[in-house]
Amino acid sequence: MNEISRPNDLDAFWMPYSDNRYFKSHPRMLARAEGMTYWTADGKEVLDGTSGLWCCNAGHGRKEITEAIQKQAAVMDFAPTFQLGHPIAFEAAARVAEVTPEGLDRVFFTNSGSESADTALKIALAYHRARGESQRVRLIGRERGYHGVGFGGMSVGGIGGNRKQFGAMLPYVDHLPHTHIPTMNAFSRGQPKYGVELAGRLEDLVALHGADTIAAVMVEPMAGSTGVLVPPKDYLQRLRQICDKYGILLIFDEVITGFGRLGTNFGSERLGVTPDILTMAKGLTNAAVPMGGVAVRNGIYDAIVGGAPDGIELFHGYTYSGHPLAAAAAIATLELHRAEDLPGRAKALEPYFEEAAHALRDLPNVIDIRNIGLVAGIEMAPRPGRPTARATDVFRKCFDDGLLIRTTGDIIALSPPLIAEKSHVDRMFGTLSDAIKAAA
Ligand SMILES: Cc1ncc(COP(=O)(O)O)c(C=O)c1O
């Protein structure tokens, strides 16, 4: 078939993380977006309760970002960053370093969260090798962790469903237990009270494997994709202490928690623990152009770069690392975050959002609600023998009623753009409440 245009043919696009067969027989097409709203191809308004996919933190269609991309595309579409540079990539890194935690001022650019996770793990391994500790090859993740879909992130990640189709994982990987304790922490607001001792399980892994074999521990400061697990009080502090005690690097995967989601630039600031390496993506460019990044403690950069013989210091990078259009989008996005104090807006709205979320507590089948920043997870009891079916019904009804939510298992996650107003919060939880009742 040589015809160029086959507008109604859905066959060719193999959709990611999707029920392709269902979608292609019941398509739901989003055609336009602005502010808090999507419009479907047939003109229906849909309130964005999920910032796209946890990424359009500044809301959709931001003119400042669009214009920055357009302008850069007209000046220079692409230039390599292997052994060459262009000013806007350096400017973007410097702007990112202004919002990362103090002392994490060196930024490696990637194109996605998955690439950021794998890059962070590789940097951790290279760091130990540069310091003469090449036996530190073990990587520790956590059950229910999500670090994207590369082999590194998938292996260190702890979601069985994401691994079982793919056979062997990376060797030398182990996992901490997850922190979900519904018997003790159900309906927590902010950080749950119980579970700090779960961080102590890192000591068990140290005893099992030997401290000097472990390169890094990677966790999400707040686990999003698995269905919103907020870290117990003092849990991250305890992980930090144990990592320091044994010379293990602590990596925070801040792909979701970065750029204002928890009411601060990064989750690390809100939760009071600074990692050695921090990954980011999504909100970095407001998702207008794909981009990710890894910020590292300056000493890590110095050890790898300063300690290398002449020539290339780190044999890693992507054709599009620091892509000019992504760099332009990142600079414009960071400027919006600063000018509009988007983290501050999220923080100001959090109490209202929290109340609205917890008001769903007595609805049928709701077994837990948890929240922090502008994130809420609402967990429902599964239909007997049919896990995920109830959440799928809620998702579909919400969409039909004009609200986009995200579901994982039977957990609903809400993470609206940080420009949300109280009226949006009311609409969001009103529509969701009706859908949960309808799915009883
Ligand atoms: C914590 C975390 N890490 C990594 C990723 C993967 O990002 P991407 O889909 O951009 O590869 C995600 C995506 O949701 C994430 O939440």
From TrEMBL:
CDD domains linked to this entry: OAT_like (cd00610)
Recorded superkingdom: Bacteria
Keywords tagged on the record: Aminotransferase, Pyridoxal phosphate, Transferase
PROSITE patterns per the UniProt record, alphabetical: AA_TRANSFER_CLASS_3
GO terms of molecular function: adenosylmethionine-8-amino-7-oxononanoate transaminase activity; pyridoxal phosphate binding
Any single biological process term in GO: biotin biosynthetic process
InterPro entries per the UniProt record, alphabetical: Aminotrans_3, Aminotrans_3_PPA_site, PyrdxlP-dep_Trfase, PyrdxlP-dep_Trfase_major, PyrdxlP-dep_Trfase_small
Cofactor: pyridoxal 5'-phosphate
Homology family: Belongs to the class-III pyridoxal-phosphate-dependent aminotransferase family.
Name the UniProt record assigns to this protein: Aspartate aminotransferase family protein
Taxonomic lineage of the native organism: Bacteria, Pseudomonadati, Pseudomonadota, Alphaproteobacteria, Acetobacterales
